[in-house]
Each structure stands twice: as structure tokens, then as C-alpha cells.
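Changelog-linked ticket: calcium ion example.
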Amino acid sequence: MSKQNKIIAFTGSSLLLLSANSILAQQPKQPKSRPNILFILSDDHARTAISAYGSELSKIAPTPNIDKIAQSGVLFSNMLCTNAISGPSRACLLTGKFSTANGFTQNEGGVIFDGLQPTVSKYLQAAGYNTSLFGKWHLFSDPTGFDYWMIHNNPGQQGTYWDPIFKVNGKQEVRKGYATDLTADAALDWMDKGRDKSKPFCMMLNFKAPHRPWEPDIKYEHLFDDITIPTPETFDDDYSGRELTLGKNMATIAYHLSRNDLKMTPPDSLTGLKREKWLSWGMLGERQHVSPNPNMSDKELKMWKFQKYMKDYLRCVRSVDDNVGRMIDYLKKNGLYENTLIIYMGDQGFYLGEHGLFDKRWMYEESLQMACLVSLPNSIKDPGMRTIPQLAMNVDIMPTLLDYANAKIPADVHGESLRPLLEQTPKAKKWRKSAYYQYFEYPRYHNVQPHYGVRTERYKLIHFYYDVDVWEFYDLKTDKNELKNQYNNPVYQKQIAELKKEIVRLQKKYQDDITLQQRREITTKHMRQYEE
Ligand code: CA
């Protein structure tokens, strides 16, 4: 464990464990009316692929079941991720704290989530909830605070679409079939037969889909065969003015999808590691140029890859939507729907061709913005697709769940309960005016320069700092696609100066007031380079 992480582990577990224990002891006797909680988290599910958000794709690939959640509730139009990558976002959701406080700063390089620290599941368990977890975990230490858990446990814990290796309450087992269905099967089984029905439940249902390598169920292999997926406005972004940041990315549709991503068939003669290497070839851009046909023009090839990528992605989404439907049906049939807080989220946003990209990580809108739909018919005011525009963050979910469970929210949690926004209480009028962001993993995967930044309703300021020193400033009112860096524009210098001060304030507030050198070291200590 690195020195930095040792410090985090000490402050993050020993001290907080004391406060956790004292809070656990103080929990009041709970009324029976507390809601059940069904928290559904999909991996890399962008808002643009959820029809309730009304994008162009909605007409082609609707998600009627996920939409039902917003139809009996609300959707957030500014739910911002605080570190837009899988494990870190999950750690923020569980702890209600930023990455530098919970210690899980990046997926790569051997970072392990400190399971001794207080988490939402532990607090809910102590408050009398029956807790369970199904699907992707990706934090490497065994889950804590769950009465029952089943996680993807292949090497790297990314999960696989077919015949996944699960770890169930500590025991490894392979289940045959398609992961999205299997995860919901296990969840429904626990809901029906496994749980303690004398208690309210909190279930975390984390689908691996629609994460790379986008492998659809057999029944959906030919869905969308006859249509052409429209390209987004910024599909041909040339990164001018952002050459040192977005221009250095290694996640372009044109150059960085592998043979495996594009479902190309390896020669029969290859087996084992050689076969794996053949399939993963393509990720190093122009050094590994994947093309099914040398006669294709660059433009044709990029479009061919986009269609292939998007159709498989949307096919995987279809299975997620089906299974969300199964969960909702169960709750409705068993009289649980009205008093279950259902939250559906993607673990961060995702590029579906915007800026010519796939993947996530950047503080730009497509990856910063998380899908978030919430239903609780018994309690949410004005349900029926009401949009909540205030700046929310993934660290708000933990205190929100504690609030609805009538459990005490620890003082050191960074997030705020979203209940005032859901119930439109006076506190909603005094909501935060800025959100903070951190990103550390570099260069693998996808060569995204580490950065931090602040987002207000209108503006965004980002500092890329690892081996460059680049500031970017965007006016989202006049440039929603973030194509023009206005950092050097004299017109905006007052706003930029104010946002720099705001960053300092937020870094103090979120225990992230470290030097630039310390910030770089977080990346360096866990650095993984690309191999040919
Ligand atoms: Ca993810």
C-alpha cells in the first residue's frame, strides 16, 4: 500500500470507524413505514441511450421499462459524476465521499477499496435494513455491509457477458448463461425467497452491461440490423484548440476499437494467449489499424465501426431494460412498488460517438453527466417525468438513502441528501451552486490526462496537470458541446478568477487540498503503461 493510501486508510477507517460505531449505536427505533430501496446501477449506460432523456436514439432504441421509473417519479438533468470511471464512481456512491477521501482513486495499478470504512450498506444494515448486492462490484476487496452478495469475480472484476464467474457470499461459482439475465434472476430469487420479510430491504443491483466489449444476448444479435444509427453533432470533432487534452485521447471510434470490440473472428489456429492478443489488437491507434477491408475509405471505415459499436451497445441495453422491467413487475405484483425507493443510474456518462469517441473519464458533459431516474410514489412530489435541474453529484446518493431510511447522516460525508429536491422542500431553494470533479488514471486506459475542475450551472473550468499544465474554460450556455476553450478570452477572465477561488474552496471542503505534486503522485503510484 502506498504512503498516500496508508494515510487515507488510517483516516478513512480507524477514525471514521469510531464515528461510525457511535452513530450506529445512536440509531433511533425505526417506524415501519420506511421505504424499501432498490438501487440499480448499470455500467457505462449513457443518458443518450435512455428514452426518458429524449435523445435522438430514443426513437430507434427506446427503454420503456427504465422510463417507467421516471414516469412514476423524476429524472435528474444534472447528476454529475465526481470521478467518471467505474470503481471510483462506485466507491463515491458507497461512501458519499470524494475519491481522495475514500481512497479508491483509480481502477488500475492495484488500488483496493478499504472495506473497513463506513459505507451506505453498513449504515443501512445497522438501521435495520436487510441488505443485498448483485452484479458488478469492481472494488477488489470483498463487499462489506451486505447480508447477501453475489459479485462478478473474473480477474479484474470487470465481469463477463457469458457464463460469468461469480463470488457468492465468499464462494466462487460459475453460472451458465447471459450475465444481465443471471444477475436479475439471482436478485429476484433473493427478493422472493432469500430476504427477511420482517425488515425493509436495500438491494444494490449492478449490471455489467452495457460495458465493453458490448456482447449482446443471442436473441438480440440481429436487433437494429436494418437501420442506420445517426451520428451525433460532434462526431467529426477535430479537437482544434484542445490538442494537448482531448486531442491526445486513445478512445476514438476511428482508431481505438479492438478486433474484439468489432466482433472480428480470430483464425482457428490461434489459441490461449495468442488468441487473446489477436483479439485485443487495435487499441493503440494508428500503430494498430483495424480494418475489415483495405479498400474502405477512412470515412467509410469510421462509419462502419460506429454502426458496429452502437448496435452492440444498444442491444446490450435492451437486455438491461428487459430485466429492469422484471424487477418493476415483481415489485408491483407484490404490492411493494409504492413504497420502494427505486433509483436507476449509470456509473458515469459515456461517449456514444460524441467528439468521435467511445469510453468516459473526461470532465466533459457526456461522461460527467450520469443517468439518474428516481421513483418513490409514496413520497416524491409531482411525479411523472418531472426534471430536477439542480447540480447533484454521485456522492449525494449515500446520504439520500440514509435520509429515507431515517438513519443519521454522518457529518464527514461530502454529499447532501437529495430529499429536498425530490420532495420540493424549502431547502431545495438553497441548493449548491457548484460541483467538483477529480480524475487520476493515466495513461492506461485511453490516455486521458489527469484533471480536476468545477462546474456551475453555466460554466466549467478544468485544470489538466499531470505532464501538461493546461486550463480549459467553457461557457455551456453558448457552447453546449464544449468545442471552444475560452480560457484565454478576455471576456471571461472575471468568471475564471472566481471559479479558481471556488476550486480552492471546494478542495478544502472535500478534503482534497493537496499540492499539485501530491496530486501527480496519486497517478504515478498506480501508473500502468501500454504494452505493444
Ligand atoms: Ca463504468
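Closing comment: Example verified and attached. Residues 43-44, 86, 211, 347-348 surround calcium ion (CB under 6 Å). DSSP finds 14 helices and 17 strands in the chain.
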